[in-house]
Specification:
The protein has 292 residues and is an alpha/beta fold. Helices cover 55% and strands 13% of the residues. The longest helix has 30 residues.
C-alpha cells in the first residue's frame, strides 16, 4: 500500500526532526513554517512547501501540527485560508503540541462536521528522539481514527499510548508537566535555600539522592545548581505556558490546584525577570535572589 501524504506545520526543533524522520522513512511531505531556513532544509530533502494551511490540507491525507500554543493552533485551523477551509473528507488532523483540552475537543467536533478526524498526540522525550522515531506519544481520539494513523505514529514513536476520547492526550501531558515542573521548582528552591543557609549543595544532593526523593528531575536540578550545567532542554517560558494551561483545565473541571498556582506564580515571576529562555532548573538563580 502507498504511504499517506503528510502535511506538517511547525518546523521547530521537535517538528523539524519529526519531518526529517518521516522523510527518511519514505513519506511524501507537504510543509509550512515561518522560518525560511527550516523550510529550505526540508525542501532540500524532497518536501513540498506551500504558503497557506488551506493548500497544505488540500494536498494531504494526514495533517500534523507541532505548534507552540492553543491560540496558534486555532488560528491555523480557523483562518480564512486555514486547515478547516481545505481539509478533505476522510483526512485526519494530528496535534502534537501541548494544547488546552477544551480547545482540542472543539476543533475535533468542527472537523467531524466536514467528515475529517482528529487525534491529539502529545509528545514525550526530546528532539533527538524525534529524529530517530523514538518519541513517547500520548494519543487520544476515536479508535477507528487512531487505528487509521497508528502505522504512521509507530514510525515516529517507540511507545504509543491510546488514552481514550479526544482531549485525553493533552490532558495527560498537562498533568505530566504539572508534576514534572512543580518537582523542578521545588528541588531548585531546595538547593537555593541550602545556598542561603550555608549548607553545601553537593552534600544536600548526596543525602537526598539516597532516599525516595531521588529522580531524574533531581539530577537535572543538581546539574545546574551544583555543577552549573543546564541540560534539561525545556524552557521556563514553555513550563510557564503549560502550568497556565493546567490551571485553565483544572478550572474547566470545576476544581482548583493551590500547588499548581504556586509553581505557576514562581515560573511567571522568573519569566517576568527575563529568564524565559533558560531551562527550568535555572529558576534556581531566581530563588537565590528572591527577597521577601
Amino acid at each position: 500500500m502507498s504511504k499517506p501524504v503528510i502535511g506538517f506545520i511547525g518546523l521547530g526543533l521537535m517538528g523539524g526532526n519529526m519531518v526529517e524522520n518521516l522523510q527518511n522513512r519514505g513519506y511524501e511531505l507537504v510543509i509550512m513554517d515561518l522560518n525560511k531556513d527550516s523550510v529550505a532544509a526540508c525542501v532540500a530533502r524532497g518536501a513540498t512547501a506551500v504558503n497557506t494551511a488551506k493548500e497544505l490540507a488540500e494536498a494531504s491525507d494526514i495533517v500534523m501540527l507541532c505548534l507552540t500554543t492553543s491560540a496558534v493552533v486555532e488560528k491555523v485551523v480557523y483562518a480564512e485560508n486555514g486547515i478547516m477551509a481545505g481539509i478533505k473528507e476522510g483526512s485526519v488532523l494530528i496535534d502534537f503540541g501541548t494544547s488546552i483540552p477544551a480547545s482540542t475537543r472543539k476543533i475535533g467536533a468542527d472537523l467531524a462536521k466536514k467528515g475529517a478526524g482528529m487525534i491529539d498526540a502529545a509528545l514525550g522525550r526530546t528532539p533527538a528522539h524525534a529524529k530517530d522515531g523514538l518519541l513517547n506519544i500520548m494519543a487520544a481520539g476515536d479508535m477507528d481514527t487512531f487505528n487509521k494513523v497508528k502505522p504512521v505514529l509507530e514510525e515516529q514513536g517507540e511507545n504509543i499510548f491510546h488514552l481514550g476520547a479526544l482531549g485525553a492526550g493533552h490532558t495527560t501531558k498537562l498533568i505530566n508537566n504539572f508534576m514534572g515542573m512543580t518537582t523542578v521548582c521545588a528541588m531548585s528552591q531546595a538547593f537555593a535555600v541550602a545556598e542561603l543557609a550555608g549548607v553545601d549543595r553537593q552534600q544536600l544532593f548526596d543525602i537526598m539522592s539516597t532516599g525516595p526523593s531521588s529522580s531524574p528531575f533531581m539530577q537535572f536540578c543538581k546539574n545546574y545548581a551544583v555543577d552549573n550545567v543546564s541540560d534539561l532542554g525545556f524552557s521556563i517560558a514553555n513550563a510557564n505556558k503549560d502550568l497556565g494551561y493546567f490551571l485553565q483545565m483544572v478550572e474547566d473541571l470545576g476544581t482548583e490546584s493551590k500547588i499548581a498556582e504556586g509553581s505557576s506564580a514562581n515560573l511567571q515571576a522568573a519569566f517576568d525577570a527575563g529568564m524565559g529562555s533558560g531551562n527550568v532548573p535555572e529558576i534556581f538563580d531566581y530563588f537565590v535572589k528572591l527577597k521577601k
